[in-house]
Amino acid sequence: MGATIGINTMLLFAFIFDIIWKEKIIAPENIKKFNLVYWIANGALFSFLLALVIAGFLKGHWKCIQHRFPFLQ
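and the corresponding structure tokens:
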């Protein structure tokens, strides 16, 4: 459920950014803020994707290479 909400929210943000950018709805003095928010959102998405890839790699390494059983120490 949370993933669906996150995906739909990012799709809505993408549509809003696209409409604002193409229709020139944003005031010229706010273009710097708009670009800053745009790049922060893209950077956050990239760091989230990178964290998921790293977590998946580490879990795969833990399960396949180290042959440990969960909750047994």
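(Above: one complete record from the training split.) The radius of gyration is 19 Å.
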